[in-house]
């Protein structure tokens, strides 16, 4: 049944909430009451209106036709005087009574007037020439009056006061800002940042700022001629603007017997405490003791309220907001979030101060997460900091990276500056416009946009840019993807919890994981491969191998190519082969008319274009084990010729590379593992840029580097340790790889994993055994080594019916065997 | 039309069948039911029978685009694929109503 919904308040909170209700097809006849005789406008833009950079039409969010189009009865300029709860009616100042089934109170705030002598005129409210700065009418009056006057004083050095001062400069020649506190914006900025901002406001904008200025009196008989401060100073002026703060409009609500403290007390569903049918939202609402005066929390409240009142999601709950602001204050970049000063002795404080440029940055870090930040004069890192703050993300080891773009290409492109047709994802050909289209259609998570457009799903290098574009296009409303921390998209758990649950319930097959750990037991195709890899790592030979959980490459032990054929790369340990082996490979290539024979980057030979049904026969003729060039696994160990032949070689890199490959061949993991051993620091085998690279140095020692990469991402590995013998290299290699297997996220290569954990921590665990798990890691990798079987031996008896049956006509249809 | 024994298709996998001039991928879901769709990915011609499935979608092995097995609709903005009625009669896969 259609219910009657009455909304008291037609400001940004009231109208936004109604929009959210309409978006959920809420079944209501809606009546709205607004104090001001207009539709709904963007109050934040009033300072732009004052500054003359926006006109009145430009600040309206919902004009009167919006109300008509949505069958909303709007009483603009009508004030509600009482809520009669027992009869469920609201009574307006014109005496009309309106019944409701559901009521939303969104009365917002009013400008607060400090107790200043002579500020009021008994006949006309304020003294002639004195203005508040809160409504469209205030702003219009101020503009009209200021036009014929010369000197303005703004009382209040918060955000609104600064904006008013800046705007007034458009109309009068002299503006003085009086602030009762010791520095500007003291709620958002620490003292140093406040002084930095003050210097910029004075020097760049030419606004005089007086702090510790307690205004006691408005001077002038008929109209303002100046203000007097507590220290006796008089400042001549002919316009005074009050911007000393806001107070929630709650009097009528309190008078109607509803619970009001500093604001109207609401629960997590935004219902007024103890009331089934009355809600409150926005600046007038007090939630868990907090009042919010920014729009972002208000948007969140509106969504929860709408979810609850429409029954779309009655369990929706607003749990409070972490406050952050990023804005231009009077033309100067300012951002602030969380703490503005350290509170504990062990709070980590990082400060960068460059007064000449007017740049100040401060971070406060507690327990490894961002607890507060202040930026003045440079907001380039503000979006990253707000995200790190909101989501309590892990922070980079190099704290300076949070303040500056270190190592990023100079002048990183801003999404706003990119043309719509600029290609963002060079692998899948996705433009900025395509990404924005998906965001505008309602998809506001980075992973959701990546799924829909496939941007960032190739080499992955554009992911940070995709993220920036999504955040920009969503206008700061990008949503956190809960799945981002899950090991695979279809099972709602991060890796440690997932592994603990798998152990607890002894889940040894992929289907059992879905059935036990996913609500509803739903299977997910895109999660199977990651789970199969994880279970195999955890259970080794006890793993119940469901072949459908494998990706096609792992079902048939070759890498699928664009035409549905496969590549065959025989093992060639350390890149060393023999004439006999080469002959065999050549004969196979000729016999099967292999379309292409190519050397790989990992020092092996690739036979390309092999139909699936020929794989078993080719493997049999080759009679060489699989090189695993298709799996998320240990791939190759690239070597140089080392000390046997090279006149510079100081260690036998070839022999060591072969030994490492012999031992760890086929080891599966969360990502590929490419290794190298090089016989001297000239690094011909490129060991510095491998997942694990070993470098022989003079004196019979070996350096081990981990976390290197030279693909889409380039990174020099970190030196893990230097050891004296090849045996130690082999042991530490296994221990590091096992630690990576157990702790890396799915598809997280070592170049992300190592910096995420930190090389010092990895060294503690793997080399120094500070956690006492080295023996367990060694035992686990030993078990995996023992479980190795050459998959190409499956050629004799297929593992499943039709394992090697073709799935496609490779050339033309009639060649495919037709099954009767 | 009989395509062959159900046991030709392992649980959770697909196999391709040539039917007249068409290539059809038949999947045997883990819940035992069958689905049949056109075998060729409309994006770049990938072999859908080699794709991974769950009880709802097939994911093409080449570029990981996904299609709903029941409706043929793309989940990633690609053209739809054909779906065909298919069922098991005893041990045999029957294509068609």
UniProtKB/TrEMBL annotation, chain A:
Pfam families on file: Fer2_BFD (PF04324), NIR_SIR (PF01077), NIR_SIR_ferr (PF03460), Pyr_redox_2 (PF07992), Rubredoxin_C (PF18267)
Leading EC class: oxidoreductase
Domain spans labelled NADH-rubredoxin oxidoreductase C-terminal: 324-388
UniProt name for this protein: assimilatory sulfite reductase (ferredoxin)
Claim: RNA-binding is one of the keywords in the record: no
GO molecular function, one term: flavin adenine dinucleotide binding
Positions of [4Fe-4S] cluster binding: 640, 646, 680, 684
Domain Nitrite/sulphite reductase 4Fe-4S: 632-769
GO terms (BP aspect): nitrate assimilation
General function of this protein: Catalyzes the reduction of sulfite to sulfide, a step in the biosynthesis of sulfur-containing amino acids and cofactors.
Binding sites annotated in the UniProt record for siroheme: 684
InterPro entries on file: BFD-like_2Fe2S-bd_dom, BFD-like_2Fe2S-bd_dom_sf, FAD/NAD-bd_sf, FAD/NAD-binding_dom, FAD/NAD-linked_Rdtase_dimer_sf, NasD-like, NiRdtase/SiRdtase_haem-b_fer, Nit/Sulf_reduc_fer-like_dom_sf
Note on how the cofactor is bound: Binds 1 [4Fe-4S] cluster per subunit. Binds 1 siroheme per subunit.
EC number per UniProt: 1.8.7.1
Cofactor dependency: [4Fe-4S] cluster; siroheme; FAD; [2Fe-2S] cluster
Source organism: Actinoplanes aureus
Family under the similarity heading: Belongs to the nitrite and sulfite reductase 4Fe-4S domain family.
UniProtKB/TrEMBL annotation, chain B:
Domain Rieske: 1-95
UniProtKB keywords: 2Fe-2S, Iron, Iron-sulfur, Metal-binding
Entry-linked Pfam families: Rieske (PF00355)
GO MF annotation terms: 2 iron, 2 sulfur cluster binding; metal ion binding; monooxygenase activity; oxidoreductase activity, acting on paired donors, with incorporation or reduction of molecular oxygen
InterPro entries (UniProt xref): Rieske_2Fe-2S, Rieske_2Fe-2S_sf
Name this polypeptide is given: Rieske 2Fe-2S domain-containing protein
Organism per entry: Actinoplanes aureus
Origin organism lineage: Bacteria, Bacillati, Actinomycetota, Actinomycetes, Micromonosporales
């Amino acid at each position: 049944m259609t219910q009657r919904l009455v909304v008291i308040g037609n400001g940004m909170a009231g109208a936004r909430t109604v929009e959210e209700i309409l978006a959920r097809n809420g079944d209501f006849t809606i009546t709205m009451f607004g104090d001001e005789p207009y539709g709904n406008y963007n109050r934040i833009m009033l300072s732009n209106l004052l500054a003359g950079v926006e006109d009145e039409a430009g600040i309206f969010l919902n004009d009167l036709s919006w109300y008509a189009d949505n069958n909303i009865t709007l009483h603009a300029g009508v004030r509600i005087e009482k809520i009669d709860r027992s009869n469920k009616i609201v009574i307006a100042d014109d005496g009309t009574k309106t019944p409701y089934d559901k009521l939303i109170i969104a009365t917002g705030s009013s400008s607060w007037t400090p107790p200043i002598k002579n500020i009021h005129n008994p006949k006309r409210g304020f003294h002639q020439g004195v203005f508040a700065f809160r409504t469209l009418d205030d702003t219009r009056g101020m503009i009209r009056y200021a036009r014929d006057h010369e000197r303005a004083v703004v009382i209040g050095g918060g955000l609104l006061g600064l904006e008013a001062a800046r705007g007034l400069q458009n109309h009068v020649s002299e503006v003085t800002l009086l602030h009762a506190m010791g520095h500007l914006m003291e709620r958002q900025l620490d003292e140093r940042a406040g002084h930095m901002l003050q210097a910029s406001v004075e020097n760049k904008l030419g606004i005089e700022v007086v702090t510790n200025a307690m205004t006691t009196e408005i001077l002038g008989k008929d109209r303002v001629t100046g203000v007097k401060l507590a220290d006796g100073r008089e400042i001549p002026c002919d316009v005074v603007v009050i911007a000393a703060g806001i107070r929630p409009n709650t009097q009528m609500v309190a008078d109607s017997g509803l619970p009001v403290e500093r604001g109207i007390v609401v629960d997590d569903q935004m219902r007024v405490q103890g009331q089934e049918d009355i809600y409150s939202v926005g600046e007038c609402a007090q939630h868990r003791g907090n009042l919010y005066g920014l729009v972002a929390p208000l948007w969140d409240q509106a969504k929860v309220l709408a979810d609850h009142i429409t029954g779309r999601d009655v369990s929706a709950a607003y749990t409070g907001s972490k406050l952050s602001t990023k804005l231009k204050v009077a033309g100067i970049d300012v951002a602030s979030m969380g703490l503005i000063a350290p509170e504990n002795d062990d709070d980590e404080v990082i400060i960068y101060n460059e007064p000449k440029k007017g740049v100040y940055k401060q971070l406060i870090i507690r327990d490894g997460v961002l607890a507060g930040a202040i930026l003045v004069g440079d907001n380039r890192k503000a979006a990253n900091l707000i995200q790190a703050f909101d989501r309590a993300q892990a922070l980079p080891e190099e704290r300076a990276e949070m303040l500056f773009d270190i190592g990023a290409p100079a002048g990183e492109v801003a999404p706003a500056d990119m043309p719509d047709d600029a290609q963002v994802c060079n692998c899948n050909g996705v433009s900025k416009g395509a990404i924005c289209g998906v965001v505008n259609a309602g998809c506001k998570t980075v992973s959701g946009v990546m799924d829909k457009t496939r941007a960032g799903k190739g080499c992955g290098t554009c992911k940070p840019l995709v993220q920036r574009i999504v955040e920009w296009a969503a206008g700061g409303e990008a949503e956190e993807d809960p799945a981002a921390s899950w090991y695979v998209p279809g099972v709602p758990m991060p890796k440690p919890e997932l592994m603990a649950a798998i152990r607890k319930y002894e889940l040894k097959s992929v289907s059992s994981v879905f059935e036990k750990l996913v609500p509803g037991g739903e299977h997910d195709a895109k999660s199977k491969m990651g789970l199969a890899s994880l279970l195999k790592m955890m259970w080794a030979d006890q793993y119940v191998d469901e072949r459908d959980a494998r990706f096609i490459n792992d079902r048939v032990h070759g890498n699928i190519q664009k035409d549905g054929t496969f590549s065959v790369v025989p093992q060639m340990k350390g890149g060393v082969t023999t004439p006999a082996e080469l002959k065999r490979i050549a004969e196979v290539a000729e016999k099967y008319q292999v379309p292409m024979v190519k050397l790989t980057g990992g020092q092996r030979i690739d036979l390309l274009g092999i139909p699936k049904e020929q794989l078993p026969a080719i493997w049999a003729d080759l009679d060489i084990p699989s090189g695993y060039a298709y799996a998320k696994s240990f791939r190759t160990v690239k070597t140089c010729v080392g000390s046997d032949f090279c006149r510079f070689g100081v260690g036998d890199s070839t022999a060591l590379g072969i030994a490492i490959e012999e031992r760890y061949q086929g080891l599966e993991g969360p990502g590929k593992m490419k290794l190298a051993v090089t016989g001297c620091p000239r690094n011909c085998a490129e060991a510095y840029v491998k997942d694990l690279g070993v470098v022989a140095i003079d004196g019979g020692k070996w350096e081990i580097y981990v976390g290197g990469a030279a693909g889409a991402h380039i990174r020099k590995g970190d030196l893990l340790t230097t050891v004296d013998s090849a045996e130690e290299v082999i042991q530490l290699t296994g221990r590091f790889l096992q630690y990576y297997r157990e702790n890396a996220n799915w598809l997280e290569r070592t170049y992300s994993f190592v910096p995420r954990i930190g090389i010092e921590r990895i060294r503690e665990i793997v080399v120094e055994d500070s956690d006492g798990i080295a023996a367990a890691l060694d035992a686990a990798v030993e078990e995996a080594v023992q479980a190795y079987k050459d998959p190409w031996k499956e050629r004799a008896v297929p593992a499943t019916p039709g394992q090697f049956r073709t799935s496609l006509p490779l050339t033309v249809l009639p060649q495919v065997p037709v099954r009767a | 039309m009989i395509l062959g024994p159900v046991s030709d298709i392992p649980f959770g996998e697909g196999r391709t069948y040539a039917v007249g001039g068409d290539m059809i991928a038949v999947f045997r879901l883990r819940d035992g039911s069958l689905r049949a769709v056109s075998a060729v990915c409309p994006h770049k011609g990938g072999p859908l029978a080699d794709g991974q499935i769950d009880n709802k979608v097939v994911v093409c092995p080449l570029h990981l685009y996904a299609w709903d097995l029941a409706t043929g609709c793309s989940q990633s903005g690609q053209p739809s694929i054909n779906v065909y009625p298919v069922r098991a009669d005893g041990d045999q896969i029957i294509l068609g109503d």
